[in-house]
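Journal club side-thread
Mid-discussion, someone asked how the predicted structure for our own chain would compare to the paper's figures. Pasting it here so we can look after the session.
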Amino acid sequence: MSGMPATGPTRGDDPVARVDALRAEIAHHNLRYHQLDAPEISDADYDVLVRELRALEADHPDLVVPDSPTSHVGAAPSSLFASVTHRVPMMSLDNAFSAEELGAWADRLAKVVPADTRFECELKIDGLAISLTYRNGTFVQAATRGDGTTGEDVTANVATIAAIPKELDSGIGVVPEVLEVRGEVYMPLAAFDDLNRRQDELGEKRFVNPRNSAAGSLRQKDSAITATRALSFWAYQVGEVLPDPNDDPAGPLVGLASGQAATLDWLGRSGLPVNPEVRLVKGLPGVLAFCEEWQARRHELDYEIDGVVVKVDDLALQRTLGATSRAPRWAIAYKFPPEERSTTLVDIEVSIGRTGKATPFAVLEPVFVGGSTVGLATLHNEDQVRIKDVRPGDVVIVRKAGDVIPEVVGPVVSEGSERGSAWTFPTACPVCDGPLVRLDGESDTFCTNLDCAGQRVQRIAHFASRSAMDIEGLGEQRVQLLVDQGLVTDVSDLYAFTPLTFTGLEGFAEISTTNLLAAIDASRGQPLSRVLVGLGIRHLGQVGSQSLARACGDIDTILSADEATLAAIDGVGPVIASSVVAWFASPVNRAVVERMRGADLTLTEPMQPDPREGGLTQTLQGKSVVVTGTLPGRTRDEAEGAVVARGGKSPGSVSAKTFAVVVGEAPGASKVTKAETLGIPVVAAEGFDQLLETGEIPN
């Protein structure tokens, strides 16, 4: 069966056939997800199928059957494990995908519950639902949800999870004779990255996402394998409790009888891990505020969430509201926009960057993911294509988290399905037909033709970019047009432009031409460090360019320096020094520099201002601050430059000498993990400005 959502009759054609097709496909995907831990489509695509089936059943009540996937939970347990009967059913949750749908749920409740009803909001952890049973405070059993009535006995595997206590804390007072705790087993992002790093070292296929990895790890027949996977757990509910605390509302188990928030507090005091991001609110506005807050902050966490769970807090009201055959009426899951979707990989092509680097990318059937429609996604390099084993014609999972560049996570392959041939990296440049060469000991491949038009466009666009010469109005499309017209071959040609250069060119009206020429002229005054960034020398970024320019002072000093001299400069080192010397050794590159000199560019670096004379206070003097991830309002280069401008250093790696690690959106997990291992302070993005201002770790 295909990994894409079913196609065929629509509601307007043959609803009977469409309902049958949807039920068969949903049943197939339930089996793949709940029993085999090998889903073929993303959660978002599965939700689309279920929503369509619900709508069809609502439009055609005569087509509703008792065993429809819309009326039951999960899938039957696997025969790999002994079965466990849930004395209190483990139900699923209905979903809301918009503020309007959440409001409709609240309106339905308003007919039954008081206007001042309190709602408890929790993060929806993207993991695997588990039931834990404690007898007289001792952990005795763990089971998966299964079909909601019968689950799988995974006690031995769950016992390896360090976060789950074997004994409840006696400090809570009376312990129930039987306490069933429900929660989510998940894999932290740092553990997931480490797992895939080990897979890479072994040359094995990478795991697709933390949720599937957690589920597969928990359902191993050998618990020793589970123990290596660094799983964790959050408790979020209770099931069976004996004696029933509702029989004695003022009794010793009152913490389990009053409300959902009080229940979580009791579970936390008993020693069970409870997620700290819980909020009690009154009314829908407070619920929506919590949902919006965590949709924006979801990437601050070391675990994945895919929404918010909203519950009526009062347990008596929960009992009054009751449940349908599959979900409680007193709770709902507000689902965030999907960051993973399934689509077809149409082709794999290669782009050529400014340094000649050849990067494979996926051409996709357009799909809406991460808040935008994606048609292209990076595949990084030859090794990643091989490790992921994605091929043209495959159904693939595409991921786009916030502003992060979309990437193909991996294929979804059904057993027995036919696939196309494995993709091989081309040997000739797709732009100039020159040779593509992979350097020894590196994963990157390069076009070695310095006159390649593909490199030329990227080099000039980079030179004009905000972090380099900041020539507004000279983006990649305009550069491509100018290159195609033969008006520019290297960056020095920009400074020979006149109004006549653009005569007859589409998109160059009088005002835009005047503005572009003014921006080019203004860039002549950019300091040497900006020019060095703009030249696009391999390994030389903004921080290294500033170090090099400040130490040498002018371009001639750099031109005459040897590797040892440059390598000795603080913030440069041997790798950058070798790359810089090799770049300036090229007669072609030297000629470009001389033409820039003739165009009156500033090829010197101003002296670092004394803070007492109006410059920036050197709050980070001598301190090393590593920036990882994307910070609001700043590019990575700008963030690193802000550190350097205040006297600090901003290297690309964490060491024992690092003062702090600033973590933005989509950070490098290895850097965060290393910082935590070394005991180095980690500063959230919102604390960066305070760090710059004071030079101290924010509270």
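Post-session note: The radius of gyration is 30 Å.
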